[in-house]
Amino acid sequence: MYKIQGNIKTKANVEAVASQLEQAIGKTGGTGDVAITVMNTLKELSGLTNLRHLSQDHVSSYISHLQERVAEGSLARKTTATYVTGLNNIIRHTNKYIDKNTVTLEPQLAKDHGLSAGPKGDVLPSASNEVHSQIRSYFVEKNDQKPDIKNEAMPHIVDIAKYLGLRIEECIMFAYLTPEQIRETIKTGVLPIEKGTKNNRPRNIKLSDVETTRTSQINTIKNACGYMSKHELSNMCPTKLRQTMYDFVYNAKRAFEKATGLKYNFHDERRTYAQQSFKEYKTRLTEHQATMNVSQNLGHNRPDVLGNYIPK
Q1: What is the DSSP-derived secondary structure letter of residue 304?
Q2: What is the DSSP string of 262-293?
Q3: Per-residue pLDDT tens for 52-72?
Q4: Do 42 and 60 touch, CB atoms closer than 8 A?
Q5: Is 96 exposed, middle or buried (0-12, 13-18, 19+ CB in 10 A)?
Q6: pLDDT band for position 120 (50/70/90)?
Q7: Per DSSP, what are the bridge partners of residue 190?
């Protein structure tokens, strides 16, 4: 048989892989087009240039990307399930034909990630306080057993996701605030977010008016900045390359899931934040005003996107 192509560095390379994949599985039509879309997204998310290096971290990153798009309303779940099928075709093709130095990758089930087609208005799950506490404690204990700057960062990262509603990229790139800047944030009740945002759009997050929630938010900011100050970091990423930390985060998540048997998704924390914030705003604002405030805090231009976060 001809040499199997694994290089996806250029547009021509990607198309060649898609063509070989179609021939290998005996399917044409849209199969190759979907594979091209998936491979291009993998490249954009992680800089992957050869399927020989495709890892479970890349797969997890791609799944989280789909979940994010479903949550913000930019992708229908039916379409997303098609992309998961495309991802699985690439995984099987890679496992069977491409010489790799990694373990065999597992195909993904869309329904396991809340990505299968369902009734309109379905909302993906939020993270329970119990699961949040368990993943946080898991990394605290790991760091106590064997100090590691990345493990030390993880409890802060999951807290930032839960209490401030940031995307995982924003959590990793959460910027250091000086004590004076922290005091200003507490005084104004506004936290500026600039790094790691979608399409590089900065935004301001309004801190909660509910005392207990606001205290959790302020403590999260102070603790994260204390960690960064201790290690002389400008953001929460303790590695030279953001992708290295991004990969570590998803690898660490899988280690937690394997050790505890629990399922965890970073974006679930963002949904928890959205649902809690909406509930708090509704006690003093109209539903429309509450929707606008939460949408702005999440960084969504379209308020209707919030319907993917809030149960009807």
Answers
A1: G
A2: ----HHHHHHHHHHHHHHHHHTTS-HHHHHHH
A3: 888 877 887 788 788 777 766
A4: no
A5: exposed
A6: very low
A7: 206
Q: What is the CATH number of domain 129-308?
A: 1.10.443
User: Whose structure tokens read 């992680």?
Assistant: 46
Q: Is 200 left (phi over 0), alpha (psi -120 to 50) or beta?
A: left
In 3-state terms, what secondary structure has residue 179?
helix
Q: What is the C-alpha separation between 233 and 242, in angstroms, rounded?
A: 13
The structure tokens listed for 109 are: 């089930």
Strand partners, 191: 205
Among 167, 180, 189, residue whose Cα is nearest residue 236 = 167
How far out from the chain centre does Cα 129 lie? 18
Rounded Cα gap, residues 235 and 197, in angstroms:
14
For residues 92 and 101, which has the higher predicted lDDT (pLDDT)?
92
- Rounded to whole angstroms, the Cα distance separating 209 from 276 reads 12
pLDDT of residue 283: 94
Q: Angle of helix 242-260 relative to helix 56-72, nearest 10 degrees?
A: 90
- In tens, the pLDDT along 229-250 reads 999 999 998 887 776 777 778 7
The first and second tokens of residue 187, run together, are: 């005084």
Sign, CA torsion 25/29/34/40:
positive
